[in-house]
Amino acid sequence: MRDTLLFLHVLSAFALMVTVVVFSAFALGAARDGRVLLVSNVLWGIGGIGTLVFGVWLAIYVKGYEVWDGWVIAALVLWVAANGLGGRAQAGFAEDADEAKRSQAALMHWLRSLVVLALLVVMIYKPGA
Fold first, then answer.
1. 49 Cβ neighbours under 8 A, 6+ residues apart
2. Which residues contact 82 (CB under 8 A, 6 or more apart)?
3. Which sequence spans correspond to the domains of the chain?
4. Which residue in 31, 67, 84, 89 is deepest, having the highest Cβ count within 10 Å?
């Protein structure tokens, strides 16, 4: 069971990374395509729910950590922050967005990328565990 949950958790994290890579291309000036944006946003949603559900299940029910462990709380806070920043970036990368919105979307994306990186560090090192 542990290996299956770990596989699903990491697979969900890869779905999140697809979105980060696609939005990085948009932020660096790649042409915006509505279909690519839609697929990317769907993958972010699936990956976000997957990392949350499988991650909490893995940490609490399989590994024996508690919800109030410092690294679990940090991961949850970073997950919420990444989703908030991602939502703001998503709106600005729409095909009909003006240049000011695209510039703000790029900033929100790069901030989200830093939050995702911080989330990865928390997952690897588990501070406070």
1. 12
2. 48, 112, 115, 116, 119
3. 2-125
4. 89
DSSP letter at 118 equals: H
CA dist 109 and 84 (Å) reads 10
Task: Look up the pTM and report it.
Answer: 0.88
Instruction: Report the alpha-carbon distance of residue 12 to residue 31 in Å, rounded.
Output: 26
Distances (CA, A) of 128 to 55, 70, 110: 17, 5, 27
Q: Are 47 and 13 in contact (CB under 8 A)?
A: yes
Cα–Cα distance for residue pair 104/117, rounded to 1 Å: 20
- For 23-33, write each residue's pLDDT tens digit: 999 999 898 88
Alpha carbon 72 to its chain's center: 16
In angstroms, the CA 101 to CA 118 distance is 25
